Amino acid sequence: MIFDSYANVVASHQMEFKQYYPRSSWHEHDADQIMESCDACIEKACAELEEQGWTKESVKVIGITNQRETTVLWSRKTGKPVSHAIVWDDTRVMGLVTKYENHARERGVPYEGKVHKGEDALKALRKLTGLPLSTYFSALKIRWMIDAWADPDEEKVASKWANVKKAYDADDLCFGTVESWIVYRLTGGAQGGVHVSDVTNASRTLLLNLRSLKWDPVLLEFFDLKENILPRLVSSSEVYGKIKYGALKGVEIAGLAGDQQAALVGNKCLRQGEAKCTYGTGAFLLFCTGEEIVESNAGLLSTVAYQNGPNSKPVYCLEGSIGVAGSGIHWLRDSMHLVPTAPHVNILAAEVADTGGVYFVTAMGGLFAPYWDSSATGMIIGISTATKPAHVVRAMLEANAFMTRAVAESMKVDSGVDLPQMKVDGGMTNGDMVMQVVADLAGCEIVRPEMRESTALGSALLAGSAVRLFGWDIARPETLHEVNTAGSAIFKPQTTKEYRDKKWAGWQRAVERSRGWVREDDE
Ligand SMILES: Nc1ncnc2c1ncn2[C@@H]1O[C@H](COP(=O)(O)OP(=O)(O)O)[C@@H](O)[C@H]1O
Ligand SMILES: O=P(O)(O)OC[C@H](O)CO
């Protein structure tokens, strides 16, 4: 996406790339294909720019934003991926989560001069990283990738991962989340590419100390990982290097942020108390807590919102990560064939006034925030002979609203702040019905900007701010007042509190039923 000084989109190009699902609950990417799609998007967006009478030299600076946690491993020598990347919502490391929880409880975790054991060890890990041990974050994915070659249960796939171990033993392995991989490749790859990761992405690995913003030796020892695989840590807004090839050769890359943090910046939620929710594949509600780290007692993550330059203090946020949002709609479309296209869910759901008592707990990869239960599975309950596809589709949309309410209630517990209004963006917010259902059941006003590419815009603002393009300065939000001000749509709750609370009670009962379904002896 190429933006002008008002954050109007001047030119853009987007492509899908292949998703690999080699087994149930496994999800992989080919990092080379990610790069090919980036390269093609750069060329095509620049061509569109030129068609509109601009030169490609008008592009002054580049920001990159990315799907977080997805774990890419490549060879320092060749610059090539040594395996497929494992995607954030892949839950193959579920067994490792239990193993490392026990490991922490038994061996203990050093924190503030004392070794904590038992449940305190898990709390210590959480204090260090802001995160729970979960299938979601990168560290256990890296561990799995290094060890997969030797796992007898993985015989059929082991050969695919053998190069990871070889490269690791030969000190040739580089780890990066997706922004790290893209920067590395754009700046030259094996020919001098920079191996960096910004602190927003690094804060999702379980390897970063949330306070010092450094890779933490305690965590590296805990996961038994060598530091030489890790990227150099950088802020979210500074010049990292120049693009070495293609239409934008020579342009500086100066902004890096994980997609959810970038969307927070793109929505200009830069100050304590401001919040947004992005409904894409998953849904992510982020609440800016300023320079203070708020430790959650209610199942939220404490994470880095952005760091505005290498010498700036980091800004933190509380995050409620919801694992399934748009991916649920894709499931209705591709696996259940209930709708021909994603937007069609709005039409089908509008055919019925309610779900006819159906609840859909969208725990297809376990439950994320605020429940954090990997033993929960997807569940549709309340079915009767009167149940139609439209009820199930509507119940899926309602699940987004209930999950949003669950996260918003946790935010209130942690921060003391109610969320009467929430800014939203992401592909799912294109659906008016989806948004109205969220407003009706979560009970808050939804504000949807006309320009909904806040994720891309956030990384552009971080990059522009680093070189003071158009006078933008993230530290001075008033310099962004002309950015993305075109009209917003507002969705107000059209339900009574009594109705919302009744539905909420039903949701809570449904969630309880879905929990604990997977047992250790299950396949
Ligand atoms: N009109 C719509 N109504 C409901 N959902 C939609 C609509 N358009 C797209 N989506 C959903 O939005 C998701 C894509 O959102 P996007 O922000 O592009 O996701 P991501 O950044 O995670 O790839 C898809 O999963 C799709 O199901
Ligand atoms: O919705 P996705 O798949 O683009 O990714 C969202 C997040 O980065 C995962 O944490």
Automatic annotation (TrEMBL):
Q: Name one Pfam family in it.
A: FGGY_N
Question: Which residue intervals define the domain Carbohydrate kinase FGGY C-terminal in the entry?
Answer: 275-466
Q: What class of enzyme is it?
A: transferase
EC number, as in UniProt: 2.7.1.30
> Pathway it acts in?
Polyol metabolism; glycerol degradation via glycerol kinase pathway; sn-glycerol 3-phosphate from glycerol: step 1/1
What is the protein name stated in its UniProt record? glycerol kinase
A GO molecular-function descriptor: glycerol kinase activity
One GO cellular component term: mitochondrion
One GO biological process term is: triglyceride metabolic process
**Ranges for domain Carbohydrate kinase FGGY N-terminal:** 2-266
Q: Which UniProt keywords apply?
A: ATP-binding, Glycerol metabolism, Kinase, Nucleotide-binding, Transferase
What CDD domains does the record point to?
Answer: ASKHA_NBD_FGGY_GK1-3-like
InterPro entries referenced in this protein's UniProt entry, alphabetically: ATPase_NBD, Carb_kinase_FGGY, Carb_kinase_FGGY_CS, FGGY_C, FGGY_N, GK1-3_metazoan-type
Indicate the family of this protein: Belongs to the FGGY kinase family.
